[in-house]
Write a structure and sequence with these properties.
CATH class of the largest domain: Alpha Beta
Mean pLDDT: 88
Shape: elongated
Number of domains: 2
CATH architecture of the largest domain: 3-Layer(aba) Sandwich
Distance between the termini: 18 Å
Largest sheet: 8 strands, mixed
Oligomer: single chain
Low-confidence stretches: 363-370
Order of helices and strands: EHEHEEEEHEHEHHEEHHEHEHEEH
Helix content: 25-40%
Number of helices: 11
Strand content: 15-25%
CATH superfamily of the largest domain: P-loop containing nucleotide triphosphate hydrolases
Radius of gyration: 23 Å
Length: 370
Amino acid sequence: MAKIMLVLLDEDAYFGEMLSAYVRSSEYAERFSIRVFTSMDEGVRFVEQNKEPLIIMVHESLTPLPDAVFGLKPGCTVVISDSAREGGLLEYPVMFKYQPLDRLLSGITAHYNEFCAGEPLRGNRGAKTVAVYSAVGGTGKTVTAIHLAYQLAQQGERVFCLGLELLPSRVWYVQEGAEETESFSQLLYYAKTAPALISSKLEGLKRKHPDCKFDYIPPSMHLKELAEMEASDLKHILQGIEATRMYDRIVIDLDSAPHAVTREAIRGADLVLWLLLDDCVHLSKNAELLRSWTAGERATDWLHNVRFVNNKNAGQTVNRFETYGFTHRSELPYVPEWKGVGRVEDMMSPAFALAAAGLVRAGGEGSRYR
């Protein structure tokens, strides 16, 4: 289902206006139309006369609803409360009214997709996948992935950023509570046991970065779990993210270790930004890995989607990249302010973000994971 009617029953007219404006101006406009009623009688009358599935948001002060409402067409009913308590019955969950609106609507969408009989809510977008990689740590993979996801979101794309480092750079990702530290574990569990559920479960697991405005799953807290992740798990996760049809771009921050998950991501991506430094040891290691991956392979089509990038480029290079087998490389600028940084917020560089986004604008023609 591409779109469903959201009906708010709440005497608080200001909240109704605020919610309506947010729905109509945000990504949720792709999934919801909205009607607001401050009069219980008018709202119930509208619900009874409507022939389409509905999601009813009712303020706790207006409960219980008339019995006639509960016998209506497929949909769901959510109770919103002025207090921070959450819970309620499985069929009628209670959600905190004054949480960020994107979190409130995300929770409602997650409940509908997971527990209602109707077709899950979907968007109308098709995602392209960009993997950021280097065979050597310290090359700037995470910084590049975050800046890329940030800039694409600023330019109007819906972006999902997936961190797959064995030792994740957690400081880049906001984690608000202990339960969020297990979000990736839950995602991986569904990838292994019930891949078809990922697209409906994702809404309740993802978070929106408050500053960068891309969606993400808080990185795993369990190193062993990531180390034991299989290529098929990643394939199922990417298929599930794409099945939501809510994203234009999936940005993957890969681990440097050349394990099966890394190879699966590189082979399946629409575009790979393979970062290199102007350093002979660094270039030798990357060249050795690339040779080992292509030796004896019959099909190396994935190489056509790889863009070698000279990161931290300060101008004239010392090494001839072509000597190591890296031709037609692109560049990302050296940022002097990053020599010493006390907060990750100080590492956000608009110039670097624009350069990173410029590398992907012409990359990829549709994902291989569909």
